[in-house]
Amino acid sequence: MSLLRTEGLTRIYGGLKAVDEVDFTLPEGEVHALIGPNGAGKSTFVGMVSGRIEASAGRVWFDGREITHLPAHKRIRAGMAYTFQITAIYAKLSLFDNVALALRNRDRAAAQEALDHVGLAERGDQLAGYLSYGHQRLLEIAMGVAQRPRLLILDEPTQGLAESEIAEFNALIKRLAGETTILLIEHNMDVVRALAERITVLDAGRVLARGTPEDIHADPAVQAAYLGTG
Amino acid sequence: MIRDLGLHLALIAVLFVLGLTLPDYHQGNMARILVLATYAVGYNVLFGYTGLLSLGHAMFFAAGMYGLGLVMQHGGWSPVPAFIAGLVSAALLSVIVAVLALRTVGVAFMIVTLMFSQSAFLTILYFGTWTRGDEGFVIPQAARQVAGLDLTDPVTRYMAALALFSVALLLVLWLVRRQEGAVLIGIRENEERTRMLGYNVLSHKILAVVMSGTLSGAAGAGYALLFGYVGATFASVQYSIFPLLWVLLGGAGTTIGPLVGAVFMFYLIDYSSGLTNAYMLIAGVVLVLLTLFARAGIMGEVRKRWAPWLP
To answer: How many structural domains does chain A have?
Structure first.
């Protein structure tokens, strides 16, 4: 059964169609990567899925229910979690307070467990703003995971991470795969190859191709538009 | 948790002892400061914890003050129901202001609250027949009696002011230790992140405005009842700025900061006016120094340097 489905989803900025009638289906349990050049409309698309951005046209279903007009916070409550492209944590609050807000309760043990997932367990009382950039990204991912979402949306999670941190990230996502459906916007093709079961390629707001990593790699249109011919 | 509560109860106990031991002059001052600090505690819920800067809180203070004063003066109500009328007036006004003003953010929110407050001020002047405008009216001593207690007696008045302040203080402590309080702080720190963690930002902001406005109204009603005077000055811009100053000085987003700020400011002006006629100059210099070297306010600096657990 599909967990997420969009039909004709469109967003127009001025005269520009940032996302142009995208039909998209995401089966439950899948790790799906959304790739495409800058400005292809990836962030706008997940923005409309999560409710941050209002759709100009089209419809969205989540878990069998239409959510096109549902406000963002209700979509999150319904089982989505969203991590921002630009790190969005509470810099002036402790790691514990950050995670507690994500958990929607003040249970210390649960927060500790969530921090443990990303190897930040000993830092619960530190202010999040004092963490290194890589650790801040991991904290944000921990906040997403802590919600035990049915759909986890990650907008360029590995941007700015060091190689070793990327390896940790990959391991974390692999642990989640199977229990959580994951929609991943990613530029790092190594990460995409390591994690994604299926890929959708967006270009200029339209779906250029979709399929398994092998299909996408072999697709001539994708090679021309995105991967280059080398 | 226990430590927090212990600290606040100890503070209340100290203030209680002060009420019995302070010389008359300071006892009178402190009674007034406690009521004004209650106002600042209310202001702090919105500004300090939620991060919304209102320039119009005098309207809530005045709503409480006139809500109580008018029904006592013209309706002959006794203090307790009149106090409730004050609370209800402030709560109603804050619901209306919340729903309208929260459509704006940032500077626009400041201006909209300022405009609402000015309208409230002008409304009070317009209905001068009942409100007696700028001149105001006095609530006679005979009317300020509750259950055999004479609220004009200095010790009783001090204890009533302390009771009002303590309720407000503990209420805010309770709020910030709950998830709702954490969400308000989350909105202050990063509104979009908070929305995308599944919280209804608007309804939390409405809660903050209503709680802040109602506490401010409680302070206004308490002021009228304990000091026996109701006047339009309390609805003027000046009285919207005062709580902002107290909270900034004492420490925005700290439970105790509003009291510390109110005490500090009151005695700074009191002391410096004993030294020179140019006392506002001294007060001004001290304020500039504080904003330069203690940007988080007095309790904010204490929290930053020594006690990160302070709520």
So the answer is: 1
Q: With contact defined as beta carbons under 8 Å apart, do B240 and B247 qualify?
A: no
Contact check, Cβ <8 Å, B182/A88: no
Using the beta-carbon criterion (under 8 Å), do A101 and B182 form an inter-chain contact? Answer: yes
Residue A162 lies in a domain: yes
Directed axis angle between helix B106-126 and helix B238-250, to 10°? 140
Cβ contact, residue pair B194, A101, below 8 Å: yes
pLDDT tens for B168-186 read 999 999 999 999 999 999 9
A5 in Cβ contact with A60 (< 8 Å): yes
* DSSP labels, A62-117: ETTEE-TT--HHHHHHTTEEEE-SS----TTSBHHHHHHHHHTS--HHHHHHHHHH
B197 and A88 within 8 Å at the Cβ level: the answer is no
Confidence of residue A160 (pLDDT cuts 50, 70, 90): confident
- Pick the residue with more confidence: A6 or A106? A6
Interface test with A, best of B197, B202, B309 (most A CBs within 10 A): B197
3 state DSSP class of A186: coil
- What is the domain extent for residue A214? 30-51+70-227
Half-sphere exposure of residue A137, counting CA atoms within 13 Å on the CB side?
18
Residue at A62 is within a domain: no
pTM: 0.92
Q: What ranges do the domains of chain B cover?
A: 2-236
Q: Do residues A221 and A58 touch, judged by C-beta distance below 8 A? A: no
CB atoms within 10 A of CB B250: 27
CATH number of residue A223's parent domain? 3.40.50.300
Mind listing the pLDDT tens digit for each residue in B81-131? 999 999 999 999 999 999 999 999 989 999 999 999 999 999 999 998 999
B213 touches chain A (CB under 8 A): no
> Is A156 a member of any domain?
yes
